[in-house]
Amino acid sequence: MKEKREIRKEVWRRLLEENVSKNPFGHIPQFRGQREAAEMLRKLEAYVKAKSVFVPPDQAQYEVRLNCLKDGKVLIMATPRLRDGFYKLDKDVKNWERAVISYEVTKYGKRLLTSYEEIGKIDLMVTGAVAVSIRGERIGKGTGFFDLEFAILREIGSVDESTPIAAIVHPLQIYEKIPSEPKDVSINYIVTPEKIIEIKDPPPRPKGIDWKYAEKFVSKIRPLKELYERYKLG
């Protein structure tokens, strides 16, 4: 099987060559049809029923975040590289179009402490990807932030194994099988501009934070800093 880095390069090159994405390399790629994919997500029952939706700050998910506010949902959004943790936006926030931009959320949103009491239950997570498989595996851009976001949210009880996760991608990003590690977060749905693919039995997900990996990031990531004392106390 190809390694993750090979698959990333392959997908980025393919998206560029097929004129699907203008600058995919090193990113969760924006792609031609991402607005239609965001509209397709609105047909997913898990989205329709969700009151609280988590979406990362990637530009590729801009339309998803905007739709969450249009549809009256509570949007939980991570800050870039998780430096300042999680923020909450809802339909009452001013200037929706700017509020859901990654570098503007701290201006418009409510800063949340990293606790269940602050964040609450998340009904759906929506993410992008570089590649996904029909078995439920997902490869990001290589920084591991979505996996860490899930691990933190699971650590505090806001998500669990049954929380539905949807990945918004172009069909060129879909594989039969891709490499997966225990720290990788699997998905339940693949959403493209044309259809929704449901994965019946995705791989198991991380049960919380792997502190052996995360400890070195404590000084740079507010949620880890807030949870670290609890970890040290056992």
Strand elements, count: 11
| Succession of helices and strands | HHHEHEEHHEHEEEHEEEEHH
Classified in CATH, the superfamily is: NagB/RpiA/CoA transferase-like
Distance between the termini: 39 Å
Largest sheet: 8 strands, mixed
Structural class: alpha/beta
**Which value, in Å, is the CA radius of gyration?**
17 Å
Helical content (DSSP H or I, runs of 4+): 25-40%
CATH architecture: 3-Layer(aba) Sandwich
Number of helices: 10
**Integer average pLDDT:** 96
Major sheet: order of its strands? 4-3-2-1-5-8-10-11
Q: What name does CATH use for the topology?
A: Rossmann fold
Strand content: 15-25%
Overall, the morphology is globular
What are the segments in which pLDDT stays under 50 over at least 5 consecutive residues?
none
Any idea of the CATH class? Answer: Alpha Beta
Describe the model.
This protein has 234 residues and is α/β, with parallel strands linked by helices. The chain has a single domain, classed as 3-Layer(aba) Sandwich (Rossmann fold). Helices cover 32% and strands 16% of the residues. It contains 10 helices and 11 strands. The strands form 2 sheets. The chain has an 8-stranded mixed β-sheet with strand order 4-3-2-1-5-8-10-11. A 3-stranded mixed β-sheet has the order 7-6-9, covered by helices on one side.
Keywords:
alpha/beta, 3-stranded mixed sheet, 8-stranded mixed sheet, Rossmann fold, 234 residues
Short description:
By secondary structure, the protein is an alpha/beta fold. It has 10 helices and 11 strands. It has helices at 4-17, 34-41, 45-49, 62-70, 96-99, 105-108, 116-119, 145-155, 211-214, 222-232; strands spanning 52-55, 74-78, 86-89, 110-112, 124-127, 131-133, 138-139, 165-168, 174-175, 189-191, 196-198.
